[in-house]
Amino acid sequence: MTITPPEPPPPGSNYALIIWWSLKFRYWAYKNTPDSDSNLHRIRVFAYYHEPLESRRLQHSLGLDKGLLVVVHAFASVDQDQQNNIVIAHELLHTVGATDKYAADSEPVFPTGYADPAQSPLYPQTKAEIMAVRIPLSTNTSRMATNLNECVIGEQTAREINWL
Predict the structure, then answer these.
(1) Contact of 145 with 85, CB cutoff 8 Å
(2) DSSP state for residue 79 in the 8-state scheme
(3) Which of 21, 41, 90, 141 is 20 to 30 A from 63 via CA?
């Protein structure tokens, strides 16, 4: 049996549509994980694996800190397993308060999106800040980390999730 969460609101939706979707998603999650004694104290991760077609773009994955809910859209491919793990970890950290560290163009934001913002010379970085998911190679280029070993939790993210 396939259980599918409500379709997310279209990009650029107004706050009312986003709030309505959030309420529908929370209700859907409650109905599909009916253990009400622990739903307020656990993170629920729903991972949807899609066929890895070359031209396919996946829906945006998301993590909600209010409700401790994660929806990950991933490619069902052994070649993608490591990057899927990065996306899952990134979205899971949203549920405990971490914020994105990348700009609208998906490039890491300096300094919070850099694993080592004090490195000299600054480029190329060798790791990705997990909430940026990309490794800065120069002022305007970066690459996706290939696995969690190439990711770190930076100082700002550590503060946001109460590790510091």
Answers:
(1) no
(2) G
(3) 141
Residue 20 shares a structural domain with residue 93: yes
Report the predicted TM-score, pTM, of the whole model to 2 decimal places.
0.84
C-alpha separations of 93 from 49, 78, 147, 160 in Å = 20, 24, 16, 9
Residues ≥6 apart with Cβ < 8 Å to 143: 134, 135, 137
Any domain includes 163: yes
What string of pLDDT tens digits covers the 164 residues of the chain? Answer: 566 666 766 677 788 887 888 888 888 888 877 666 665 678 888 888 888 877 777 667 767 767 788 888 888 999 999 999 999 999 899 988 999 999 999 999 999 999 999 999 999 999 999 999 999 999 999 999 999 999 999 999 999 999 98
Say if residue 18 is in the same domain as residue 93.
yes
In this structure, are 78 and 132 located in the same domain? Answer: no
Residue span of the structural domain in which 78 resides:
14-97
In a domain, 92, yes or no: yes
Q: Are residues 83 and 112 in the same domain?
A: no
Q: What's the first-to-final CA gap in the chain, in angstroms?
A: 43
